[in-house]
Amino acid sequence: MTTKVTIGPATLYLGDALDILPRLEPGIAALITDPPYSSGGMTRGDRMQGTASKYVSTGATRAAHNVEFMGDNRDQRSWQFWMSLWLTLAQSKLKPGAYALCFTDWRQLPALTDVFQAGGLVWRGLVPWDKTESSRAPHTGYFRHQCEYVVWGSNGPLPAAEHGGPWPGLVRERVNHRTKLHMTGKPVELMERLVACADPGGVILDPFMGSASTGVAALKKGRQFVGIEKSPHYFDVACKRIELLLSEEAMKAAT
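Request: output the structure for the sequence above.
Response:
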C-alpha cells in the first residue's frame, strides 16, 4: 500500500521505489539520491549485520537519529541487480539532459559506476564528499575513510547549463551529529551544493529520501521535490521536516 502526501512544492511517497517510480510523471530535472550501500564489510556476513552495527560508533547507537533503516543487507550480486532495476526506472522519468547524482562509499564505488551506466545513464565523473578530519577514524596505521563519493552523470547528452556551473568538483562539509535526523543522513549544506545543478524551479527526485535532507535543500534552493521512502518512521520524519521548513519560510515571508 502506498501513501502519498503533498506539502507545498514537495510530494512524498511512503512505499517501495520499484513500485512507485513507474507511476511518476516524466520530465524530472535531476535524480539526487543516497540509496542503501549494502556495505559495512567485504563479506555477506558483514553486510547482514544491523545498520547501527555497521555505521554507528560504539556508544552512539542510542542517539535519536540512529533508528535502523531498510534495504541495506543485500549481497553484492543482488545489490547490483537491484540498483540496475531502480536506476532504469528512474532514468525513464528524467528529461533529456537531466542530471543524475548518486552517493556511495569506497567499497561500492567500482560497482556503482557500472550499474549507473547499466541503468541507461551517462557517467561523467565523481564528486568526493570530504567529511573532514572529524569523521569516524579507523585504528592507527590506516588512512582515514573521511570521504564518500557522488557518482554523477546525465540522461543522455549534457548541454551547457544556463543557470550556473561549473560547480565544485569536491565538497568539504563535516557531519554535525546534533542536527542529524537519520543514521546516515547527509548535511543539508552538502545537499544544497548538489541541488544547484538542477534547473531553477525544476523537480528533484530522491527515491530513498530518508529524513529528506535532499528535499529540504531542494526547497531552500527554489526547486520542487519528489521523495520516496520505505520506512514509516523516516517517512514521518521527512513529512514533519518539510512541513516545519515551509512553515518557517512562510513566517519569514510574512515579517
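The beta strands are 3-7, 10-14, 28-33, 94-104, 122-130, 147-154, 171-172, 203-206, 224-229.
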